[in-house]
Amino acid sequence: MTSTPPTRVSANTARRTEIAQFVRAKGTARIDELAHEFGVSTMTIHRDLDHLHQVGLLRKVRSGAEAPPTEAFERNIELRRVLNLAEKQAVARAGVAWASDRIDMTAVALDDSTTALHVVPLLSSHLPLTVITNFLPAINDLSTDARVRLNAIGGDFVPEFSSFLGPQAIRALRDVHYDVLFMSVPALSRGRCFHPSSAAAQLKRAFMDSAELRVLLIDHSKVARRAIHRICDVADFDVVVVDSGIDPDEHRRLEDAGANILVAES
Fold first, then answer.
1. Where in the chain is the domain with CATH 1.10.10.10?
2. Where do the coiled-coil regions begin and end (predicted)?
3. Contact yes or no for 77/71 (Cβ under 8 A)
4. Fewer CB within 10 Å, N side or C side of the chain?
5. Architecture (CATH level 2) of domain 6-68
6. DSSP summary character for residue 124
7. pTM over 0.70
């Protein structure tokens, strides 16, 4: 039996991640356009698109590929983990630094976003502390550290989001209070935050209600997107941290909507 060399596997994975990011940013892309952009043959692009379509990272169509709708994207935890990594890490660092300059972080909350998940390793300099979250990947990461008092918010487990939602989770959040909430949203437009899931939107509002400081962490791909369920206004956050890839016009619109914008440099 023969196996593909590890370097080739990693190169394929990196290229496919970049293809998924490229298509999602543009909405659509042609096969010949992708071959030129990534310096590979059209046959290689066909194989890449077949793989990305199979795992739900995009939709392969006759002429090329289309980005998945916002709802399909938000329900794919693996896609959310790999896209815009550098941007998510940058906004997480900037958000934690901003909050730690303003409040003694003894209790923090993390929502079920992969952006807030990047806050987890940054909390090491603030231990011991209490962390409240409904996100299973964060619960798994934090549960092994004895210096963390973990308050895992239970409820109805939703595999698509890898998180706990529903009335029980909302009631649990009403009984706690924390210094800082680190949160993200899948869509932000006209000064408002949206989510494709009604249950997730309700829980994010409950997270906000129990926070002393509210920090919104978003990468620029979330801006100028919409989903069906409104969460809140951007002005409801104490700071909105976004990476430097944000369009200048969208930056101005957020400020006009009352957002306190902090641009995180990668």
1. 6-68
2. none
3. no
4. N
5. Orthogonal Bundle (1.10)
6. G
7. yes
